[in-house]
């Protein structure tokens, strides 16, 4: 599908939805727009189907390649044991799953990864696929009903949770599917606290990123949504509290800022 057509239809859809919203209807945000809660999931799905073909190149362009370092850091911080079993939710093109398996292969052959993604293509010819060490599922992070309680050692969600309608439900589901002793790790865009850096970051977000979206992916609208969704996601401390409210224990403040808080890794332990 031509991405420009898809974006403009997503925009028209959200405008129609705003008009139809009545005062007693439950609403939520879709970027800076207010939409009926029931519509958000399909609007987000529209954005990711628009950006899918340019996803990897746009990630590199928007972050100047730094997203690779953030993801490398996440896996080093996790340091999974050779037999750790990972559920990578909102896995996209499989960046986290790939790094996890590579890390495990530095030791003994490891356990299986379940990547919540359409990343089969990337792994189709890999030895991990042949060895049955990776599987894929498509669904909603807010409801993992077909995953048993207490079945994973680590749960990761990278740049995914802010797109979910109810991030608190996502975290509660993570708590349920983790084994006792298991770990929740979330890599997500967050808040830059230094005011000077924050204004530079705002310029990059609101001017450079949509323009890159237009030039590289012929799709300004989806990248405007991505930038707006970052601003609507709770800041570091509030999200850390949401993680504790779901039952997790955090160590210290519960998060680590990277690149001045552009992104943060939140970690929760299920004890
Ligand atoms: C920005 S991408 C991140 C991909 C990958 N984790 C990475 O870091 O490169 C966000 C992913 O979240 C997925 N997603 C959006 N809403 C979701 C939901 N409610 N449940 C599960 N996945 C969702 C999208 O399909 C997309 O693959």
From TrEMBL:
It comes from the Eukaryota. Its EC number is 2.1.1.201. InterPro entries: SAM-dependent_MTases_sf, UbiE/COQ5_MeTrFase, UbiE/COQ5_MeTrFase_CS. It is found in: Mitochondrion inner membrane. It is a peripheral membrane protein. One of its GO terms (biological process) is methylation. Keywords: Membrane, Methyltransferase, Mitochondrion, Mitochondrion inner membrane, S-adenosyl-L-methionine, Transferase, Ubiquinone biosynthesis. Pathway: Cofactor biosynthesis; ubiquinone biosynthesis. Belongs to the class I-like SAM-binding methyltransferase superfamily. MenG/UbiE family. Methyltransferase required for the conversion of 2-polyprenyl-6-methoxy-1,4-benzoquinol (DDMQH2) to 2-polyprenyl-3-methyl-6-methoxy-1,4-benzoquinol (DMQH2). Component of a multi-subunit COQ enzyme complex, composed of at least COQ3, COQ4, COQ5, COQ6, COQ7 and COQ9. This is 2-methoxy-6-polyprenyl-1,4-benzoquinol methylase, mitochondrial. The gene is COQ5.
């Amino acid at each position: 599908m031509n991405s420009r057509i898809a974006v403009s239809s997503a925009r028209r859809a959200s405008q129609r939805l705003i008009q139809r919203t009545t005062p007693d209807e439950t609403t939520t945000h879709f970027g800076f727009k207010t939409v009926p809660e029931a519509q958000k999931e399909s609007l987000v799905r529209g954005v990711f189907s628009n950006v899918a073909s340019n996803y990897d190149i746009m990630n590199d362009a928007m972050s100047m390649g730094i997203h690779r370092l953030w993801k490398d850091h996440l896996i080093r911080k996790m340091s999974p044991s050779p037999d750790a079993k990972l559920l990578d939710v909102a896995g996209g093109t499989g960046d986290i799953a790939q790094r996890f398996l590579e890390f495990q292969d530095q030791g003994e052959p490891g356990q299986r990864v379940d990547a919540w993604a359409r990343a089969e293509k990337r792994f189709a010819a890999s030895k991990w696929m042949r060895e049955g060490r990776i599987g894929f599922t498509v669904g909603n992070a807010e409801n993992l009903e077909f995953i048993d309680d207490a079945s994973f050692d680590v749960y990761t969600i990278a740049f995914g949770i802010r797109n979910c309608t109810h991030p608190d439900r996502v975290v509660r589901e993570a708590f349920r599917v983790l084994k006792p002793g298991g770990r929740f790790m979330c890599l997500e865009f967050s808040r830059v606290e230094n005011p000077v850096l924050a204004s530079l970051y705002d310029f990059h977000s609101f001017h450079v990123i949509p323009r890159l979206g237009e030039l590289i992916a012929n799709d300004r609208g989806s990248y405007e949504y991505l930038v707006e969704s970052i601003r609507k996601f709770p800041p570091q401390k509030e999200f850390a509290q949401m993680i504790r409210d779901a039952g997790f224990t955090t160590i210290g403040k519960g998060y680590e800022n990277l690149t001045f808080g552009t992104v943060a890794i939140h970690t929760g332990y299920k004890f």
